[in-house]
Amino acid sequence: LEISNLTEKDILVLRLDLTDRSSHEAATNSVIKHFGKIDVLVNNGGRSQRSLFMDTNLDVYSAIMELNYLGTISLTKHVLKHMIERKRGKIVTVSSVMGIMGAPLASGYCASKHALQGFFNSLRTELTDYPEISIINICPGPVQSKIIQNVFTENLAKSLENSGDQSHKMPTDRCVRLTLVSTANDLKEAWISDHPYLAVCYLWQYAPTWAWWLMNRMGKRRIQNFKSGV
User: Fold this and answer.
1) What letter would DSSP give residue 99?
2) CB 63 within 8 Å of CB 116
3) Which has more pLDDT, 124 or 197?
4) pLDDT band at 1 (very low <50, low <70, confident <90, very high)
5) CA dihedral 17, 160, 57, 19 (to 10 degrees)
6) Is-contact 96 201, C-beta < 8 A?
7) Quick one: which of 41, 191, 185, 201 has its CA closest to 123?
8) Are β-strands 40-43 and 133-140 bridged in parallel, bridged antiparallel, or unpaired?
9) Whole-angstrom distance, CA of residue 124 vs CA of residue 64
10) For residue 228, pLDDT beyond 90
């Protein structure tokens, strides 16, 4: 049994809308006023997608980028200003293995995660004068969560009818633990996944021609299952 030493003053919960970028500065200032500093920012807001590109309205892609990408870098901008003043801090961004590879039915989601990967890898190179500020990208594979129930579909008004079984996915607490280990050790990038998804990451990174062949075979079956409602 672990006994926590936290008091009410050690906890502050703020409602935040990543798409309401005008509210991010005030939210950041509220946290700093309460705690006096921000040591770690964990960017963990976002929605996934389940739809074929040719069936999907473009405003879905706009909404994905607005939430997953622009909302994240907006909040980061305000927090990073404070961290630069202190010359220390950690910015942890939950990307995805989809930021490393491509996959059918998730073209917009993959695009937003690729955007985050490119942005934070570039930002890291702009912070060489601040060695105590860490940029950490976390790339989980399938993890048990409610992300599937809340995915974007082919239009903004439609929700996913069948979220499927999640028992094969990594337990949430294990993903959290590995994320914390990665953060404590200042890993620039961590792939957090079980096999076979982790093996596909390595293929995509080091043998992309094989990865494209494999993804085409897997993707065809995935699309067939999606159309069949599985």
Assistant:
1) G
2) no
3) 124
4) low
5) 0
6) no
7) 41
8) unpaired
9) 24
10) no
Tokens of 147: 């992300």
Task: Say which range, 29-33, 180-184, 225-229, has the weakest mean pLDDT.
Answer: 225-229
Judge whether 98 and 201 are in contact, CB under 8 Å: no
Contacts of 226-230 with CB under 8 Å at 24 or more apart are 226/50, 226/52, 226/105, 229/161, 229/162, 230/162, 230/164
Tell me if residue 202 is catalytic. no
User: Identity (one letter) of the amino acid at 25?
Assistant: E
- Residue 14 near residue 33 (C-beta atoms within 8 A): no
CA-to-CA dists, residue 177 to 99, 183, 189, angstroms: 21, 10, 15
Q: Give yes or no for a contact between 204 and 101, defined as CB atoms under 8 angstroms apart.
A: yes
| Distance separating alpha carbons of residues 33 and 15, to the nearest angstrom | 16
Domains in the chain with CATH codes: 8-196 (3.40.50.720)
Residue 202: φ, ψ to 5°: -65, -40
Among 3-12, 131-140, 194-203, which range has the highest average pLDDT? 131-140
Q: Is the pLDDT of residue 3 over 70?
A: no
Helix, strand or coil for residue 119?
A: helix
Q: Of 109, 130, 197, 202, which is the active-site residue?
A: 109
Q: Indicate the residue type of 208.
A: P
Please, which residues bridge with residue 91 across strands? 41, 135
Average pLDDT over residues 63-86: 98
